[in-house]
Amino acid sequence: AMVNQFKAGHETIDITQDSSHAAIYFGIGILIFLPLYALCKKIELSRRIRTIVLIILLFIALNNEYLNYVFHGFHVQSNVPNRFAIFMIFLCIVCIYDVILNIDSIKKKSIVICGIVTSVILAFIWFAYNIKLDTATALSLIIIACYLVAIIIFG
Question: Which one, of 126, 95, 124, lies nearest residue 3 by Cα?
Answer without folding.
Answer: 126
